[in-house]
């Protein structure tokens, strides 16, 4: 008998629900190496540490706006030098694009220039990792593989399905024919 998994992650998120979910996922791992608390518990702020620098991340400040194909995520960051200021990560996810799990973003987020230059890329990476983690957890609940994250009509949609089949003759994989009667790596 197939094991049934409880479905807790919906297929679609509105702005408020996605902001709450991202607020939980942006905590990061504890610096002491302890296990991360469950995603059902929340702290209002966390400290991110990178290369000796620290920033206070206000998880309760996460706001989301969705436009067709674009996701805007605002998070307040705070340092002694800059005070508290929002950074806005813009992700172009596509609307109905078959690429599925691909996004583009600005070189640095919008917001305070000092915060954006030091903490912009880590914030972009954390937002994207949070979205990919959400897509992965969504797919696992359905015994499937993540296939797409899309933004359309004010909703973020997660899609899961069967993994794409990969055969040994696929480009970039061992066993691919090189066009000269042999296999790559066998000369």
Fold and architecture overview:
By secondary structure, the chain is an alpha+beta fold. It has helices at residues 15-25, 113-141; strands spanning 12-13, 45-50, 53-67, 70-79, 83-92, 104-105, 110-111, 145-152, 155-161. The radius of gyration is 20 Å and the shape is globular. The protein starts with 11 loop residues before the first strand and ends in a 26-residue tail after the last strand. The relative contact order is 0.15.
Q: Provide the number of structural domains.
A: 1
Instruction: Tally the beta strands.
Output: 9
What's the quaternary structure here? single chain
How much β-strand is present in the residues? 25-35%
The computed structural class is: alpha+beta
How helical, in percent, are the residues? 10-25%
Give the CA-based shape. globular
How many angstroms separate the termini?
49 Å
The biggest beta sheet reads: 6 strands, antiparallel
Q: What is the average per-residue confidence, as pLDDT, rounded to a whole number?
A: 84
Low-confidence stretches: 181-187
Counting H and I runs of at least 4 residues, what is the number of helices? 2
SSE sequence, one letter per element: EHEEEEEEHEE
* Radius of gyration, in angstroms, nearest whole number: 20 Å
């Amino acid at each position: 008998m197939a094991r049934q998994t409880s479905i807790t992650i919906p297929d679609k998120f509105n702005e408020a629900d996605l902001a709450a979910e991202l607020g939980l996922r942006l905590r990061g791992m504890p610096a002491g190496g302890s296990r991360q608390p469950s995603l059902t518990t929340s702290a209002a702020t966390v400290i991110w540490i990178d290369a000796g620098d620290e920033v206070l991340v206000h998880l309760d400040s996460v706001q989301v706006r969705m436009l067709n194909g674009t996701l805007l995520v605002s998070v307040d960051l705070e340092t002694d030098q800059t005070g508290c200021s929002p950074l806005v990560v813009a992700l172009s996810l596509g609307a109905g694009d078959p690429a599925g799990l691909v996004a583009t973003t600005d070189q640095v987020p919008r917001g305070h220039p000092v915060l954006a230059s030091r903490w912009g890329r880590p914030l972009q990476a954390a937002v994207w990792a949070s979205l990919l983690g959400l897509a992965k957890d969504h797919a696992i609940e359905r015994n499937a593989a993540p296939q797409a994250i899309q933004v359309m009509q004010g909703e973020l949609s997660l899609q899961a399905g069967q993994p794409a089949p990969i055969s040994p003759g696929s480009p970039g994989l061992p066993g691919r024919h090189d066009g000269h009667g042999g296999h790559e790596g066998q000369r």
